[in-house]
Amino acid sequence: MRARLEERRQANALRDVLPPTPLIDFSSNDYLGLARGGELAARVAERLYGLSMVGAAQAGVLRGGAEAGLHAQARAGAEAHLHAQARAGAEAHLHAQARTGDEAGLHAQARAGAGASRLLGGNFPLLEELEAHAAAFHHSEAGLFFTSGYAAQSGLISTVAARGDILLYDALVHASAHEGMRLSPAARYPFAHNQVADLTAVGESAVQRAAQKGAAELTGASAPSGTPAPQVFVLVESIYSMDGDLAPLAEIAAACSQRGWHLLVDEAHAGGLAGPHGEGLVVELGLEAQVFARLITYGKAFGAAGGMVLGSALLRQYLINYCRAFIYSTGPLVAQVVTVQEAYRLVTAADAARRHLRALRRALVDGLAPCWHLPGAPPERDSPSAIVPLYCPGNEAVLRLSARLASAGYDVKPVRAPSVPVGQERLRCCLHADQPEPDGLLGVLGGGVKAPPFKLQ
Question: Which residue in 101, 158, 223, 406 could disulfide with 183, CB within 3.0 to 4.6 Å?
């Protein structure tokens, strides 16, 4: 281990976790500012306090002498603050539920954690409510929650793609997709990034090769009678995490539909941003019926954590029965579920924030245009994506540029090899709806100046 870490150090590629900085954030995925903003935290505190009061009453904490102890805390100021929050709405909401006959359900939710996997008693009503709400919000039949987007994506792919099936994947899909493919016995083939013609050529060639093999584990014209034809799964992202570019989803969906292939779309960086109210790019384009499964993650624009697989009720039931990442994982904390629920309420109402985010993107792309010297086109100007790449080849060079920006007060993290291919190192500039115009950042970068302090190539 020591030798391998030293290799990374010598290549300027050693990773580490760092404490938060006071710098202006152009680095995190908190695109709508919900994670660091106070409103989501306050809403979650209200909800959790109300649930905790139900749990305390259920456990008898408030009976007898224990209540005196809580009042002593109140004299110190803590409970007075909590009661003020409860009066703002949480407790009223819980009492309203109880009046409608859901008191038993409230008691079932007055817990801190799941206590087990969801198949062994770790399921609870709040979680099922979240799944139903997410499915309706994203125009899907059903949803299944995972404690992380990584687990959701790797679990989905490794479960649905069986031996004899074919996985076609965009060359730039996320590491969690590669993990899922690694765990699947299906054959896998990459296609050139965002190139629909290459997708169809690679896919049709793979299907033809499968048909020509006579081995029992593969299928096709020469396969034993009764063997099912191979299923073909296509893996793409609606907005890609490193370059922030959009997939040509309509064209990809049409190609898949014509051939009977199953399209899986990772909406990690589109959820909360694309669509009329943040439903994602699939909904914005009206492609729900042409997509086999979608992944929504909650650690980005939603400001929370976790992942949701969206698809048919049949897919949900299949994952519950066969997905090891779901079956053998403890259910989520109640706090995680409540946070995602409240995030949905804020995301739904964030139309103005989304408009401001698009305006910020236009300003940054326009400011960078004079110093854009890449062979291809610069980033799309009008896009729901909050990610703008600033290419600076070489680990050492991109580290220097990141440090220069940090000294001026801007946190723009470098993305180095091996996270990206050698020669494609870049700063990954992430915009946030709670930021002003990026004039100061552009000033440091040299945007709009004939001789910028770095060369984009």
Answer: 158
